[in-house]
Design a protein that fits this description.
Elements (H helix, E strand, L loop, with lengths): L3 H4 L61 H4 L18 E3 L8 E5 L1 H9 L16 E5 L3 E4 L9 E5 L6 E4 L9 E2 L21 E9 L11 E4 L6 E9 L9 E5 L6 E8 L3 E6 L2 E10 L3 E7 L2 E10 L3 E5 L4 E2 L2 E2 L3 E5 L2 E3 L3 E5 L10 E18 L4 E20 L2 E10 L32 E3 L8 E5 L1 H11 L4 E4 L3 E4 L3 E3 L4 E13 L10 E6 L8 E11 L6 E6 L11 E4 L2 E4 L24 E9 L5 E4 L2 E4 L15 E8 L5 E9 L4 E6 L2 E11 L32 E6 L2 E11 L20 E3 L4 E11 L3 E5 L2 E5 L4 E2 L2 E8 L2
Parallel strand pairs: 1-3, 2-4, 3-5, 4-6, 5-8, 6-8, 7-9, 8-10, 9-11, 10-12, 11-13, 12-14, 13-15, 14-16, 15-17, 16-20, 16-21, 17-22, 20-23, 21-23, 22-23, 24-51, 26-28, 27-29, 28-31, 29-31, 30-32, 31-33, 32-34, 33-35, 33-36, 34-37, 35-38, 36-39, 37-40, 38-41, 39-41, 40-42, 41-43, 42-44, ...
Antiparallel strand pairs: 18-19, 23-24, 24-25, 47-51, 48-49, 50-51
The structure holds 2-acetamido-2-deoxy-beta-D-glucopyranose (4 copies).
The site of one 2-acetamido-2-deoxy-beta-D-glucopyranose has 10 residues, from strand 12.
Length: about 800
């Protein structure tokens, strides 16, 4: 690809290594002005109410002038597997590193010093989980002259009450104000991190102001966001030039394997977003007064939910037409609940799709106000006329029904999927709920688990301490998991009313013999008991296990159901279920190298990662359910052979929202829906295990009739990416189901046959709609009753193959 060097005249200066130590200086009073244009974060679709029974419980009535709790709370988070576990500091306030935030001083060096201090993972480091950091910006205006480079495992967090402004200086001459994967100066296109492995990043609560950068300069870019799974952008506003010659862009993203972003506003610019990435889920983005709202350069599949364009010239400008491995353009877009107001062209593609495969497009519930063209082609052809109207359900691409494997090319209306009212907000859109940040609460509304006996040192058994904390503080305080690695050796019950917040992804992990028997699987974290109703909010947490042998661990059992009237009141945001591959897991290359196969006992990391049970509801946003295929610490590249039985099993009767989730490398299935009902998913992403079919699924996990679909009869079965049985009203709005390996080799990728089947729907399911299904290297893209129906070879669309719609009916 064309690297940055050809796009920008000047390159990033090499980072000076920082010798700055943490200063004990207290935060100076903030003097800068801070236009608070970002509205309240917790003002969510859901209205959650608490009735505290004790005076000391959290009330959420902090005054506007009181500091954001994250700034005020005692910071005692640690990284136990860091080389200096006692000295390493997770939380860094940029003002402690000399940032002034008055809009006058150049704060670039101070901000980057806060990011880099204490040997973090920058240039030359592939990845690391032992140097996590929250880099915090109090309210103020921070002038920058070159890029802020968030190192691996960094959360950049602004004051959620008064989002700070990052003000690009008129001389700003770099790739972007925030650059999550810089090109190495003189590196011939090499970058800091491998784009598909650029995990664990989050940026929240900022205003990025580019308007002082001359309009014609593309250096006026808000974020270079070339990232992968377990990343998020949230609550960010970017201001750009609206001059006719503007070259400004809110986000520039040329590669990656994401990912989730949401609650973003772009004002002005040539492009609100200029993007290309294997797959991504974007929720709640508004672009005002840009020339082009979103330019889509390439993908295998994106889901765009709740996108609004106001006064743009073009809403979506989509590069299409590339059908070969080396000429990948935009494979599949799934657009739901969009609004285009005074935007003459809602969608335009670069090539026509007449009778052709390229450029699969799905539109569900788009409201147009004064558009001339709903869907058009560069050069003027109108595929779907504009106007002031609602597009209920429309698609362009190959469509299938039931067991009929004959493709039909459609450029027109599609059957509108049935959406349960429980999934919708009052205006009929799919519910979205912003990541709770508790900005109206005081630090005293939180309890620290470390203040209440938990150690989080990666060694101590914290089971009793955590049980006691949950019992005492659920439905009262917000439970703060100071950064750390908390071990439990028996089931921990997380009661209704729990609000728990991690610090740079605090890890809570099950260890020990109680979780070792796969014939008697045992829950590690039980969220509610079956039948329980209440609010649960989990943010910035990683659920995990520690080896050896936890083959019987069901890591999270989700039983909680949201209270009536509190849609998405039980959920997880920026939280993940991750096993293996990291320091402290005992599932690293030293224990479970891919070169020594068959360490089934010592290298079994879970029975099932997430069980969404029958009586529950759940909102899961950005959740990555990942069994590591390579180690993130150590070399950062070595492949490992660790085993997990199953990814996600849902038996819920709904509502369940899976917004931007992934499930990878589990032996039997990634996503399974059994007797499930009223689910919305977009986009779901899977990868099959790299070792399969040696051994073939379900080995090393014997078939378990309670948890597994009947094994299918191919000679060398691989894991299902998606398996649906006896289910009803399941709406999948974007899926990327991938198979990249056979026994760690990749010849099967160009041959497009790493596995035989990847998605199965049984004949007893009804009301199943799958839009925008992309698969990689599975000979059959979709099966009904375990018989392959859709041939991949009929739907080749660049690297992946794409089906625009399949439905049971
Ligand atoms: C990045 O994306 C471009 C398409 O824009 C593609 O040609 C290139 O191969 C990708 N590079 C990597 C390293 O994935
Ligand atoms: C969408 O994002 C905006 C800006 O962050 C926020 O104010 C609004 O509450 C969000 N709406 C929904 C439905 O999430
Ligand atoms: C890639 O595909 C596009 C659209 O069909 C076409 O215009 C372009 O020439 C192709 N490029 C190459 C290098 O084949
Ligand atoms: C799918 O491929 C199989 C095997 O090549 C072939 O027998 C079958 O006719 C194909 N199905 C369709 C609908 O073309």
């Amino acid at each position: 690809m064309a690297p940055l060097a050809s796009r920008l005249g000047s390159l990033i200066t090499l980072l000076a290594s920082s010798s700055l130590l943490f200063s004990a200086v207290a935060n100076a009073a903030v003097t800068g002005t801070s236009p608070n244009t970002v509205s309240s974060i917790v003002a969510a679709a859901a209205s959650t109410s608490f009735a505290p029974s004790v005076a000391a419980c959290a009330t959420g009535n902090a005054g506007a002038d009181e500091p954001f709790w994250l700034e005020a709370i005692t910071h005692q988070g640690t990284s136990p597997f860091n080389r200096d576990p006692n000295g390493y500091r997770v939380f860094r306030n940029v003002k402690d590193f000399g940032a002034v935030g008055d809009g006058i001083h150049d704060d670039t060096a101070a901000i980057n010093a806060a990011i880099q201090a204490q040997g973090r993972c920058g240039l030359g480091c592939q990845s690391s989980t032992v140097t996590p950091a929250i880099v915090y910006f109090p309210k103020g205006t921070y002038r920058v002259t070159s890029a802020i480079i968030p190192y691996y495992y960094t959360q950049l967090v602004g004051d959620a009450k008064h989002p700070p402004t990052l003000l690009a200086d008129p001389t700003f001459n770099d790739m972007a104000v925030i650059d999550a994967d810089p090109y190495i100066p003189g590196g011939g296109g090499a970058q800091y991190w491998i784009n598909q492995n650029n995990f664990f990043r989050s940026v929240r609560n900022f205003v990025i102001d580019l308007r002082q950068v001359p309009p014609e300069k593309p250096q006026g870019t808000g974020l270079h966001w070339q990232v992968s799974q377990s990343t998020s952008l949230a609550n960010i506003v970017v201001h750009m030039s609206t001059a006719p010659n503007t070259a400004h862009q809110g986000i520039w993203m040329e590669n990656g394997s994401g990912g989730f972003m949401g609650d973003l506003v772009f004002n002005g610019g040539k492009f609100g977003m200029w993007v290309g990435n294997q797959q991504f889920t974007v929720r709640n983005v508004t672009v005002n007064n840009a020339q082009t709202g979103i330019y889509m350069n390439w993908n295998w599949g994106w889901t765009l939910q709740g996108i609004t364009f106001r006064n743009c010239q073009i809403g979506f400008d989509v590069r299409t037409g590339g059908l070969t491995l080396d000429n990948q353009s935009s494979g599949a877009l799934a657009i739901i609940d969009a609004v285009a107001s005074n935007t003459p062209i809602f969608i335009q593609t670069s090539e026509p799709s007449n009778g052709h495969l390229a450029g699969s497009l799905v539109i569900d519930n788009a409201k147009l106000e004064n558009s001339q063209v709903a869907v058009g082609v560069v050069g003027g052809a109108v595929v779907l006329a504009g106007g002031t109207k609602t597009i209920a359900s429309w698609g362009q691409g190959n469509v299938y029904h039931g067991s009929n494997g004959v493709r039909q090319f459609v450029q027109g209306n599609l059957p509108a999927p049935n959406k349960a009212s429980s999934l919708l907000d009052s205006s009929g859109r799919i519910v979205g709920r912003v990541h709770p940040q508790y900005e109206n609460y005081r630090a005293s509304d939180f309890v620290s688990v470390k203040d209440h006996g938990a150690k989080g040192d990666g060694v101590t058994d914290d089971t009793a301490a955590l049980k006691a904390i949950f019992t005492q503080y659920a439905n009262c305080k917000i439970i703060f998991f100071d950064a750390g690695h908390y071990i439990v050796t028996d089931t921990v019950y997380i009661p209704p009313g729990t609000r728990m917040v991690g610090e740079a992804w605090s890890v809570i992990a099950g260890r020990g013999s109680r979780f070792s028997d796969q014939n008697n699987p045992r829950v590690v974290f039980q969220v509610g008991k079956p039948g329980e109703v209440g609010v649960v909010e989990i943010t910035d947490i990683i659920f995990s296990t520690v080896g050896p042998n936890v083959a019987g661990a069901i890591i999270v059992e989700w039983n909680i159901h949201e209270p009536s009237g509190a849609k998405a009141g039980a959920g997880m945001w920026d939280s993940h279920i991750r096993t293996g591959g990291v320091s402290g897991s005992n599932f690293e290359a030293a224990h479970c190298p891919s070169t020594v196969a068959g360490r089934y006992d010592t290298c079994a990391a879970a029975f099932l990662h997430l069980h969404i049970t029958k009586g529950s509801s759940g909102y899961f946003e950005g959740t990555w359910v990942w069994l590591a295929d390579h180690e993130l610490d150590g070399s950062g590249v070595a492949q490992i052979s660790v085993y997990s039985g199953r990814g996600i099993l849902s038996e819920s009767q709904g509502p369940v929202w899976l917004i931007g989730t992934g499930s990878e490398h589990h032996s039997v299935y990634q996503y399974r829906f059994l007797g499930a009902k009223d689910h919305f998913m977009g986009l779901i992403q899977t990868e099959s295990p790299y070792y399969q079919p040696t051994p073939a699924a379900p080995v090393p996990f014997p078939f378990n009739a309670k948890y597994d679909p009947q094994p299918y009869q191919d000679a060398a079965p691989s894991a299902w990416g998606l398996h649906i049985e006896r289910s009803n009203n399941i709406l999948i709005f974007g899926a990327g189901l991938y198979s990249f390996f056979q026994a760690y080799t990749q010849d099967c990728v160009p041959a497009r046959n790493c596995q035989a089947q990847i998605a199965n729907i049984d004949k007893a399911s009804t009301g199943i709609s799958i839009f925008s299904l992309s698969t990689v290297a599975s000979a059959k893209m979709l099966s009904v009753g375990a018989q392959g129906v859709i041939n991949e070879s009929d739907n080749v669309n660049g690297f992946a193959s794409t089906v625009t719609f399949w439905g049971t009916e």
